[in-house]
Every structure is written in structure tokens, then in C-alpha cells.
């Protein structure tokens, strides 16, 4: 089922994808399994195909849009009267991966929750205004990329200040959600099914010590964030000198390289924010795989890390994280 659905979304066959999902539902496949196993499973493969440079960004976006359409068609077939509380679901400010949260919204509707689905990239002040207007029993926040952790922390803190517990989800919170509690979330779930179970039993959990997440980020984090444009621009100039192949780059390649340098700085800042080197080294390992799939040698990434490190010699924690990234590339 997953392979067939993936083929359809990859071919841009919206009609066929929706028809497959509805036919499977008519044949007795539970809506939950179609959402998680078929649509969700195919979407995981879409991301892997993009990372391996087998699919373009345009094809990946088109496939995601069709998956959203299929999910919406399935949702129209499942109308469950709310019997539980009210939940607000949102992606944190700057987070655009909305399909996982949309699947969570539909799963919770099936479980009897009244759901306010706010979608992608919800600014913190707007989220809090919505909470004051609607008074939900719980907020579900998604963060798929670690660079959004500072904004996730701000949103979690604001929700809890308003007296509303938070369940967090998404890869951005680290393996096993290790950063979620550190940022003040009441709970974390690995996926939609786990979130449904957590909210159905023993909710809300015992509140943690609010001081646990009261102070994050230090002077090194602050410096990197405040000097972000300077760090990127200087690194780009130095990279051109240290990596001669860049002189033959097209404008599109130069723009992509600038984006990569920005990601280096942003992931470094996120790692500094929660004092977790693995955030940065995991990013370096993933980026190296993506760049090599696109024919960019590891030396280019290593030189990029060196150009950033050269600007942060007076900041030992940041320099050590960059060293860890370069050591990984040398393995």
C-alpha cells in the first residue's frame, strides 16, 4: 500500500492517491492505519528521496501537497463527536513542516477531542492570544528542526504561564524528546499514536520544577545570534579563498552555499542554547550525506566549518562544537 501511494504522489497523481486512500478505507482499513502507515510512511520516504537527491524540492513539495489532500479526503469520512477536552495544535514559530501535526489533529479528532489546528509557523504572541480566547485543556507543539528550539522554549514557557500544559513532539526535540522537558514541556510523544495515548491516560502529568527550564542560552549563544550576518558573510568570503572550486560556482550554487553556511551558524546556536553538542554534530553528519549525494566533497563542508571557527576562537564552547563537527568529517 505504501509503495503504491508513494508512486502516485511521486507521479503527481492527486486523483489516484485520493482514490487509493478512499478505496482502502471502504475495504475496511482503519483510518488511523491509513494516516500513520500509508500517508505517513510514504511521507517519510519522500524526505529520504529528497535527501538522496533522487527527488527535487519541487517534486517533494508536490508530493506533500497531494498527501495533505489525501489526508483531508480521509478526514471528511470520519466525523467523531467530541467527548474529551479541547486541544490546540500548532507548529512553533519558524517551523513549516505541518503535515505531521495535521495527522495528529485528525488522530485526536478520531479519539474524541475538539481540535483547533493552527498549522505551520505560528508566532508565539498569536498562539497565546488564541489560548486566551479558547481556553484549551492542552497545547500540542511541534518542532521538527533543532534551530527552532529557542522559539519552542518561548512558546512552551508562555503556554505554561497561561496555565495550559504542553505536550511536545517532533525530531527537533532530540532523540527520545530529550530536550522537551529541559525546555519546560509537560510531556513528549514520538508520534501521533503515542500522543493520543498520552493524552488519553494520566493527563496532565505531574508538573515539573519550573526552574528546570528557567535559564537557557549564555553569552556564547547570544554572541552567535547577534553576529549571525557577520559570521555568515565573513565565512563566505573566506570560503571562496580557501576552497578555489567555489570560483567556478554558478549563482544558484553560491546561493545554496550561503544557505548551508547559515544552517551551520543556526545549528551551532541551537546547540549552544541547550548545551548539547550532538545537535551540531548530527546536523554536520546529515549535511555531509546530503552534500555528497549532490556531488559536493566533504572537504568543502570542513572548510566551511573552519571559516566559522576562525571567527569564534574566543568562545571555547562554540569552538569545541565546531571541532567535534570537523572530527566527524575526518572519520
From TrEMBL:
Coiled coil: none annotated. SUPFAM superfamilies: Cobalamin (vitamin B12)-binding domain, Globin-like. Residues 84-210 form the B12-binding domain. InterPro entries: Cbl-bd_cap, Cobalamin-bd, Cobalamin-bd_sf, Globin-like_sf, Met_Synthase/Corrinoid, Meth_synthase_dom. Pfam families: B12-binding, B12-binding_2. Keywords: Cobalt, Metal-binding. It comes from the Bacteria. The keyword Metal-binding applies. This is Cobalamin-dependent protein.
Amino acid at each position: 500500500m505504501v509503495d503504491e501511494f508513494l508512486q502516485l504522489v511521486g507521479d503527481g497523481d492527486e486523483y489516484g492517491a485520493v482514490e487509493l486512500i478512499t478505496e482502502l478505507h471502504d475495504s475496511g482499513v482503519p483510518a488511523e492505519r491509513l494516516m500513520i502507515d500509508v500517508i505517513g510512511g510514504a511521507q517519510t520516504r519522500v524526505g529520504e528521496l529528497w535527501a538522496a537527491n533522487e527527488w527535487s524540492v519541487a517534486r517533494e513539495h508536490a508530493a506533500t501537497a497531494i498527501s495533505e489532500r489525501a489526508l483531508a479526503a480521509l478526514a471528511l469520512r470520519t466525523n467523531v463527536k467530541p467527548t474529551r477536552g479541547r486541544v490546540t495544535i500548532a507548529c512553533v514559530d519558524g517551523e513549516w513542516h505541518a503535515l505531521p501535526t495535521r495527522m495528529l489533529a485528525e488522530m485526536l479528532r478520531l479519539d474524541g477531542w475538539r481540535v483547533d489546528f493552527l498549522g505551520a509557523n505560528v508566532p508565539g504572541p498569536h498562539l497565546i492570544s488564541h489560548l486566551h480566547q479558547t481556553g484549551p485543556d492542552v497545547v500540542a507543539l511541534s518542532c521538527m528542526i533543532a534551530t527552532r528550539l529557542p522559539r519552542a522554549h518561548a512558546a512552551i514557557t508562555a503556554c505554561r504561564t497561561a496555565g495550559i500544559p504542553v505536550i511536545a513532539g517532533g525530531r527537533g526535540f532530540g532523540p527520545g524528546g530529550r530536550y522537551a522537558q529541559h525546555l519546560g514541556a509537560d510531556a513528549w510523544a514520538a508520534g501521533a499514536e503515542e500522543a493520543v495515548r498520552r493524552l488519553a491516560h494520566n493527563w496532565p502529568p505531574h508538573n515539573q520544577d519550573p526552574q528546570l527550564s528557567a535559564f537557557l542560552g549564555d553569552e556564547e549563544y547570544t554572541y552567535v545570534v547577534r553576529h549571525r550576518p557577520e559570521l555568515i558573510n565573513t565565512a563566505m568570503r573566506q570560503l571562496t579563498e580557501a576552497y578555489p572550486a567555489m570560483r567556478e560556482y554558478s549563482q544558484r550554487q553560491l546561493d545554496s552555499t550561503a544557505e548551508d553556511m547559515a544552517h551551520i551558524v543556526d545549528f551551532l546556536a541551537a546547540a549552544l542554547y541547550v548545551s548539547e553538542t550532538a545537535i551540531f554534530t548530527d546536523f554536520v553528519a546529515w549535511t555531509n550525506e546530503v552534500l555528497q549525494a549532490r556531488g559536493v566533497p566533504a572537504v568543502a563542508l570542513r572548510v566551511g566549518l573552519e571559516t566559522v571557527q576562525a571567527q569564534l576562537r574566543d568562545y571555547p564552547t562554540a569552538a569545541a562544537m565546531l571541532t567535534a563537527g570537523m572530527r566527524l568529517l575526518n572519520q
